Amino acid sequence: MIFDLHTHSTASDGHLSPEQLLDRAVNNGVSHLALTDHDTMAGVEQLQNVAAFKSRWPIYLVPGVEISASIDQQPYHIVGLWLDPATPVLKDFLAQQRSLRDRRGEMMGLKLERLGITGALEGAKKIAAGASLSRPHFAQYLLEQGHCDKLQQAYKRWLGKGKPGDVKMNWPTASEAVSVIHAAGGLAIFAHPDKYGLTKTRLRDTLAAFKAVGGDGLELISGHQDGRVTDYLLRLSHKFELACSMGSDFHTPEQHWSDVGCHKALPATALPVWQLPQIASRLAAEGAVK
User: Fold this and answer.
1) pLDDT tens digit sequence for 183-212
2) What strand order describes the sheet that includes 187-190?
3) What is the CATH code for 3-93+170-285?
4) Which of 37, 61, 77, 285 is in Cβ range 3.0-4.6 Å of 191 for a Cys bridge?
5) Domain ranges in the chain?
6) 172 closest CA partner among 240, 106, 244, 95
């Protein structure tokens, strides 16, 4: 079985529609796929409404979301897995997140306009096409308008942390995010721990704080990852008694290092999130494990 528990679609900042994402996952041999768009479950709900889902896609869909949250006033991402999208408290929470994203987009547009880049907000919204508004939509606009030659340049010059177009948001606390995830019947996973540029001390303190508010696991493997990083995160998962998830963090087929289902398997000593009792029993009842 191949689990990919972190992917994105056009419902947020991915390049494939939810249907195209599932097609690619099936072609890549994925057995269990989580769609975890940024602060929205619109893509999950779209797939759940496909009448012939099981006949079209021989795959188990894990309803998920990637939530922007804060720990010690610093922004992080928390992946919620095995969620019920219809849970009222989750729906209300994600509506608030969308409002925060819209407000951030307006502020980014104003900052870029003051730098002489006009129409950024409208351009980003057009690219998003109703999806959850994200920085990559602004980056794509800057690229299309000739303000940079590559997407990464947009972040290095304007949109990255501390850059002129960056907007710091007061996201909900990790405690609030974890509480909402649990209320929706899901697991709270600390996403891609190696991608925040934290020192080892800061990472340990952050994971300790995440565990203290009820966090269930960490993303042990994110895309193609150095084995030494995996080994260190595995030790931290044992230290803080966190189960282990894994995912590609897929956004686009052009990024071959994060293609759907192409990450390595979990180490033998890791506790997979799908073996936690509340998930294992659910999968067994649904006949979704062998």
Assistant:
1) 999 999 999 999 999 999 999 999 999 999
2) 3-7, 32-35, 60-71, 74-81, 187-190, 217-222, 243-247
3) 3.20.20.140
4) 77
5) 3-93+170-285
6) 95
